Amino acid sequence: MMTPEELFAENEKLIYFVYNKHFNSSENHLYKEDLLQEGRLYLWKACLLFDDSKNLKFSTFAVTIIYNRMLEYVSRKLSKHSQNISLETVVLQDKEGNTCTLQEYLPAKEEYDDIDLKIIFWECFETLSNRDRTIILLLYKGYKQDQIAKKMKLSQAQISRVLKKFKFKMRNQLKEK
Protein backbone atom coordinates (compact mmCIF):
# COMPACT_ATOMS: atom_id res chain seq x y z
CA MET A 1 0.00 0.00 0.00
CA MET A 2 1.26 3.44 -0.95
CA THR A 3 1.70 6.27 1.53
CA PRO A 4 -0.43 9.42 1.08
CA GLU A 5 2.68 11.28 -0.11
CA GLU A 6 3.33 8.67 -2.83
CA LEU A 7 -0.34 8.66 -3.89
CA PHE A 8 -0.30 12.46 -4.14
CA ALA A 9 2.88 12.56 -6.22
CA GLU A 10 1.66 9.82 -8.54
CA ASN A 11 -1.79 11.35 -9.10
CA GLU A 12 -1.15 15.11 -9.16
CA LYS A 13 -2.06 15.22 -12.86
CA LEU A 14 -5.67 14.41 -11.91
CA ILE A 15 -6.06 18.01 -10.75
CA TYR A 16 -5.24 19.31 -14.22
CA PHE A 17 -7.40 16.64 -15.83
CA VAL A 18 -10.46 17.77 -13.84
CA TYR A 19 -9.73 21.46 -14.44
CA ASN A 20 -9.22 21.05 -18.19
CA LYS A 21 -12.21 18.77 -18.65
CA HIS A 22 -14.78 20.75 -16.65
CA PHE A 23 -13.57 24.24 -15.74
CA ASN A 24 -11.35 25.50 -18.57
CA SER A 25 -13.64 28.35 -19.70
CA SER A 26 -12.95 32.04 -20.09
CA GLU A 27 -14.97 32.89 -16.98
CA ASN A 28 -13.32 30.22 -14.84
CA HIS A 29 -9.88 31.20 -16.19
CA LEU A 30 -9.89 34.06 -13.68
CA TYR A 31 -9.94 31.44 -10.93
CA LYS A 32 -7.51 28.97 -12.51
CA GLU A 33 -4.85 29.13 -9.80
CA ASP A 34 -7.48 29.07 -7.05
CA LEU A 35 -9.20 26.08 -8.62
CA LEU A 36 -5.90 24.25 -9.01
CA GLN A 37 -5.07 24.99 -5.37
CA GLU A 38 -8.49 23.66 -4.30
CA GLY A 39 -7.70 20.58 -6.39
CA ARG A 40 -4.35 20.12 -4.62
CA LEU A 41 -5.93 20.43 -1.19
CA TYR A 42 -8.64 17.92 -1.98
CA LEU A 43 -6.30 15.52 -3.76
CA TRP A 44 -4.37 15.46 -0.49
CA LYS A 45 -7.60 14.90 1.43
CA ALA A 46 -8.45 12.04 -0.97
CA CYS A 47 -4.99 10.56 -0.34
CA LEU A 48 -5.65 10.61 3.39
CA LEU A 49 -9.20 9.22 3.16
CA PHE A 50 -8.67 6.54 0.50
CA ASP A 51 -9.38 3.00 1.64
CA ASP A 52 -7.68 0.43 -0.59
CA SER A 53 -9.96 -2.35 0.67
CA LYS A 54 -13.12 -0.91 -0.95
CA ASN A 55 -12.30 -2.17 -4.49
CA LEU A 56 -12.38 1.37 -5.89
CA LYS A 57 -9.70 2.87 -8.07
CA PHE A 58 -7.97 5.78 -6.40
CA SER A 59 -8.31 7.96 -9.50
CA THR A 60 -12.11 7.51 -9.54
CA PHE A 61 -12.31 8.37 -5.85
CA ALA A 62 -10.00 11.40 -6.14
CA VAL A 63 -11.56 12.83 -9.32
CA THR A 64 -15.00 12.82 -7.68
CA ILE A 65 -13.71 14.70 -4.64
CA ILE A 66 -11.68 17.19 -6.71
CA TYR A 67 -14.54 17.85 -9.17
CA ASN A 68 -17.12 18.43 -6.43
CA ARG A 69 -14.81 20.81 -4.59
CA MET A 70 -13.99 22.80 -7.74
CA LEU A 71 -17.70 22.99 -8.63
CA GLU A 72 -18.47 24.23 -5.12
CA TYR A 73 -15.69 26.84 -5.42
CA VAL A 74 -17.03 28.18 -8.75
CA SER A 75 -20.56 28.28 -7.34
CA ARG A 76 -19.33 30.19 -4.30
CA LYS A 77 -17.39 32.67 -6.45
CA LEU A 78 -20.35 33.27 -8.75
CA SER A 79 -22.63 34.00 -5.81
CA LYS A 80 -20.11 36.37 -4.19
CA HIS A 81 -19.29 38.43 -7.27
CA SER A 82 -22.75 38.96 -8.59
CA GLN A 83 -26.08 39.63 -7.01
CA ASN A 84 -27.71 38.90 -10.37
CA ILE A 85 -26.30 35.85 -12.08
CA SER A 86 -26.89 35.68 -15.80
CA LEU A 87 -28.64 32.55 -17.01
CA GLU A 88 -26.02 32.45 -19.78
CA THR A 89 -23.14 32.15 -17.29
CA VAL A 90 -20.93 29.24 -18.35
CA VAL A 91 -20.53 26.81 -15.47
CA LEU A 92 -18.68 23.99 -17.20
CA GLN A 93 -16.79 23.56 -20.48
CA ASP A 94 -15.28 20.37 -21.88
CA LYS A 95 -12.28 19.85 -24.18
CA GLU A 96 -14.42 20.06 -27.32
CA GLY A 97 -15.67 23.49 -26.28
CA ASN A 98 -19.16 22.31 -25.31
CA THR A 99 -20.48 24.43 -22.50
CA CYS A 100 -23.13 24.14 -19.82
CA THR A 101 -24.86 27.32 -18.73
CA LEU A 102 -26.97 27.97 -15.68
CA GLN A 103 -30.00 28.14 -18.01
CA GLU A 104 -29.57 24.43 -18.78
CA TYR A 105 -30.19 23.55 -15.15
CA LEU A 106 -33.64 25.13 -15.13
CA PRO A 107 -36.68 22.94 -15.65
CA ALA A 108 -37.70 22.55 -19.32
CA LYS A 109 -39.52 25.53 -20.85
CA GLU A 110 -42.62 23.50 -21.65
CA GLU A 111 -42.87 22.58 -17.96
CA TYR A 112 -42.62 26.15 -16.71
CA ASP A 113 -43.45 28.91 -19.16
CA ASP A 114 -43.94 31.40 -16.38
CA ILE A 115 -40.86 33.63 -15.99
CA ASP A 116 -41.81 34.32 -12.35
CA LEU A 117 -41.21 30.67 -11.55
CA LYS A 118 -37.67 30.89 -12.91
CA ILE A 119 -37.03 34.00 -10.84
CA ILE A 120 -38.36 32.24 -7.74
CA PHE A 121 -36.19 29.23 -8.56
CA TRP A 122 -33.05 31.38 -8.56
CA GLU A 123 -34.07 33.36 -5.48
CA CYS A 124 -34.50 30.09 -3.58
CA PHE A 125 -31.36 28.61 -5.12
CA GLU A 126 -29.22 31.53 -3.94
CA THR A 127 -30.27 30.92 -0.32
CA LEU A 128 -28.93 27.34 -0.33
CA SER A 129 -25.59 26.20 1.04
CA ASN A 130 -22.91 25.23 -1.49
CA ARG A 131 -23.54 21.54 -0.83
CA ASP A 132 -27.30 21.92 -1.38
CA ARG A 133 -26.72 23.98 -4.55
CA THR A 134 -24.55 21.20 -5.93
CA ILE A 135 -27.28 18.66 -5.14
CA ILE A 136 -29.99 20.74 -6.86
CA LEU A 137 -27.78 21.33 -9.91
CA LEU A 138 -27.06 17.62 -10.21
CA LEU A 139 -30.76 16.80 -9.85
CA TYR A 140 -31.66 19.21 -12.63
CA LYS A 141 -28.81 17.83 -14.72
CA GLY A 142 -30.60 14.47 -14.61
CA TYR A 143 -28.78 12.56 -11.91
CA LYS A 144 -30.89 10.28 -9.73
CA GLN A 145 -30.95 10.77 -5.97
CA ASP A 146 -29.01 7.57 -5.30
CA GLN A 147 -26.33 8.57 -7.85
CA ILE A 148 -25.89 11.94 -6.18
CA ALA A 149 -25.77 10.33 -2.76
CA LYS A 150 -23.00 8.03 -3.89
CA LYS A 151 -21.12 10.83 -5.62
CA MET A 152 -21.29 13.16 -2.62
CA LYS A 153 -20.88 10.46 0.05
CA LEU A 154 -24.30 11.19 1.56
CA SER A 155 -27.36 9.06 2.14
CA GLN A 156 -30.23 9.04 -0.34
CA ALA A 157 -32.46 10.29 2.47
CA GLN A 158 -30.27 13.39 2.86
CA ILE A 159 -30.60 14.13 -0.86
CA SER A 160 -34.36 13.66 -0.62
CA ARG A 161 -34.55 16.08 2.33
CA VAL A 162 -32.59 18.74 0.41
CA LEU A 163 -34.96 18.41 -2.55
CA LYS A 164 -38.02 18.50 -0.29
CA LYS A 165 -36.71 21.59 1.52
CA PHE A 166 -36.01 23.31 -1.82
CA LYS A 167 -39.49 22.53 -3.17
CA PHE A 168 -41.02 23.79 0.09
CA LYS A 169 -39.12 27.09 -0.25
CA MET A 170 -40.32 27.46 -3.84
CA ARG A 171 -43.95 26.76 -2.89
CA ASN A 172 -43.80 29.36 -0.11
CA GLN A 173 -42.31 31.93 -2.49
CA LEU A 174 -45.05 31.20 -5.03
CA LYS A 175 -47.74 31.71 -2.38
CA GLU A 176 -46.24 35.09 -1.45
CA LYS A 177 -46.42 36.35 -5.04
Structure report:
The protein is mainly α and 177 residues long. It has two domains: 1-86, Orthogonal Bundle (Rna Polymerase Sigma Factor, Chain: A); 106-177, Winged helix-like DNA-binding domain superfamily/Winged helix DNA-binding domain (Arc Repressor Mutant, subunit A), CATH 1.10.10.10. 66% of the residues lie in helices and 4% in strands. The protein has nine helices and two strands. It has helices at 4-11, 13-22, 26-29, 32-49, 58-81, 115-126, 130-140, 145-152, 156-176; strands at residues 90-93, 99-101. A two-stranded antiparallel sheet has the order 1-2. Strand 1 (90-93) and strand 2 (99-101) form a beta hairpin. It is globular and about 55 Å long. Mean pLDDT is 79; it is low at 109-113.
Topology:
Blueprint: H1 4-11, H2 13-22, H3 26-29, H4 32-49, H5 58-81, E1 90-93, E2 99-101, H6 115-126, H7 130-140, H8 145-152, H9 156-176
Antiparallel strand pairs: 1-2
Helix pairs in contact: 1-4, 2-4, 2-5, 4-5, 5-7, 6-9, 8-9
Structural descriptors:
globular, 177 residues, Rna Polymerase Sigma Factor, Chain: A, Arc Repressor Mutant, subunit A, mainly alpha
Q: Taking strands numbered 1, 2, ... along the chain, how are they ordered across the largest sheet? A: 1-2
- Rg calculated over all Cα atoms: 18 Å
Please name the CATH architecture of the largest domain. Answer: Orthogonal Bundle
Query: How does the major sheet shape up?
Result: 2 strands, antiparallel
> In terms of per-residue confidence, which ranges show pLDDT below 50 for 5 or more consecutive residues?
109-113
